[in-house]
Amino acid sequence: MYDRTWHMMPQKKVMRKASTNRSIQHTVSRSLQSRDSRKQRLEDDRIRHAFSRTIESEGSREKRLEDDRIRHAFSRTIESEGSREKRLEDDRIRHAFSRTIESEGSRAAIRR
Q1: Residue 3: pLDDT above 70?
Q2: How far is the CA of 14 from the CAs of 7, 10, 19, 21, 47, in angstroms?
Q3: Which of 29, 38, 75, 96 would you label with 12, given CA atoms 20 to 30 Å apart?
Q4: Please, which residues have CB within 8 angstroms of residue 56's CB and are 6 or more apart in sequence?
Q5: What is the pLDDT of residue 93?
Q6: Which helix (H) or strand (E) holds 12?
Q7: What is the C-alpha separation between 98 and 89, in angstroms, rounded?
């Protein structure tokens, strides 16, 4: 007897494969959307921050800057002499290290 369903078997496999591909495409699409939405959110935050600084009145800007100066000075004042020396030495080391990396990068760029 002739089996009329033999030709349907490969089609089911193809259908399953297509379904898997759609699932993968959906996952990739969602991942890209979330990455894009994160970038968009960060850009929106930057714009909002810039706008708030733009509309900030001169008096309030000066007040904010003065508050920042006071806060910074206060944090340095309560810093003990030993920790200040340690911080300064760490800054010197960090600065020297960054200069070394920059000069090595410049040398590598020149060699190219």
Answers
A1: no
A2: 12, 6, 8, 10, 48
A3: 29
A4: 64
A5: 92
A6: helix 8-54
A7: 14
pLDDT tens string 35-63: 778 888 888 888 888 877 777 676 787 88
Specify the residue for token string 């920790």.
83
C-alpha dihedral, 10 to 13 to 19 to 21, nearest 10°: -100
The token pair that represents 24 in the structure block:
């993968």
The one-letter amino acid code at 3 reads: D
For 37, 85, 93, the CA distances from 32, given in Å and listed in that order, are 8, 48, 41
- What digits encode the pLDDT tens for the residues 68-79? 899 888 877 777
3-class DSSP state of 57? coil
Q: Give mean pLDDT, residues 84-94.
A: 87
